[in-house]
Amino acid sequence: MDLIICFRKADKDKNYSLTSLDNRSLGGFVSPLDVDKDKDEAVELRTLYQLVEPDAAGQLEPDRVLCEVGKLLFKALFVANTSLHEHYRTMDAEDKLVLQFEDGAESLLALPWEYLFDIQERTPVATVRSIVRRVGQTISPKVTEAKTPRALVVIAEPLTLHRFNARNVHDLLLAELEPLVKAGRLHLDFLALPITSERFARQLAQGHYDIVHFVGHGTVGGLAFEDEVGDKQIVDAGRLRALFDGKGVRFVFLTACLSAQGEKPGDLFTNTATALVRAGVGGVLAMQYSALVEPAFAFASDIYRALGEKPLEEAILTARKIRYVADAKGFEAIQWGIPALYLQTENGNLFPKLEETKEKSLGELHPWPKPSLLKGVPERDSEFVGRGAKMVKVNQALVL
Q1: Picking from 231-235, 261-265, 282-286, which range would have the lowest pLDDT averaged per residue?
Q2: Which pLDDT value is given to residue 365?
Q3: Which of 131, 208, 347, 376 is a good FRET partner for 311, with 20 to 30 A between their CA atoms?
Q4: Residues near 152 by Cβ (< 8 Å), separated by ≥ 6?
Q5: Do 209 and 340 reside in the same domain of the chain?
């Protein structure tokens, strides 16, 4: 059985009460990090370095920092609460750890729960079982018929921001998702260039999508789209919440830095992920810190490979395990824990189980031509900053 821990409002000494869903007391929690909701800044990665002493050479490796922070969280949550710790030890391998944050405890969302480190087993919890975040009560997304889910992929790469090669990302995602399309289990659209917020809003309103995957740059409390000439256009969390409200989207995947961070700890209206949850989205996977490009895209690929056969949270667990083993050096060694899963449903079965059908539908909105047509064509690189309008026209011409 899943272990569901509800964090409830703190007292004047910042002691949070822990309960089960039926309000049985599970103990208390005192955060090892200052996550006061009235702080003027987010709990960023550099904040965590202040909790760990440098090694003999005066170095602070990212993986050691997150390991030590994970141990502090584990001690505060489990070691400090004997009965809860015993319950944790009796969990079956397939059981999830669900952390539910009630009114007054939202500040704790700023903690890096995905790095919880089991001191006894000497391993990160999130690499052996699913860790799910939940804000308030569960919801039940409507799945009225066994229809093929519709997915919209949005790849935004403003010319004035760091380049990650949107064309390669398009081809990578297409390669991973095409088997699901050919099996009749997914209808897939890519938003066409330029990736403006207006074009995205119109497509979302018309498409009746179940899944939206945004790939691009994020900031604390917003996502970076393009304007008509290719420059960045930040759309804040509040506007995104209004855009998704009532659309029936079941899962949003944000491959965007800081998309699970708010301007203040616990401010649900400036956190992109929680804003989407408040808009009624059943599940959101977002990045709580800045992420490296290649590991982030590898993580996405690993999820899609597993998603065809497993529920959402199991697919994410599989991806974490792969990245935990594969990325073992430097800043790459912490990439497996940067994605945070918000799941407002009882389980990750957000979509009906589908039989193989004859429906095979790749959408018509492909922002990039096939690779075979691109030989000799230069990449959209930093040398084109300031020539956005020309480059947008070139890319649109190539698509045609």
Answers
A1: 261-265
A2: 44
A3: 208
A4: 189, 190, 191, 203, 204, 207, 209, 211, 212, 213
A5: yes
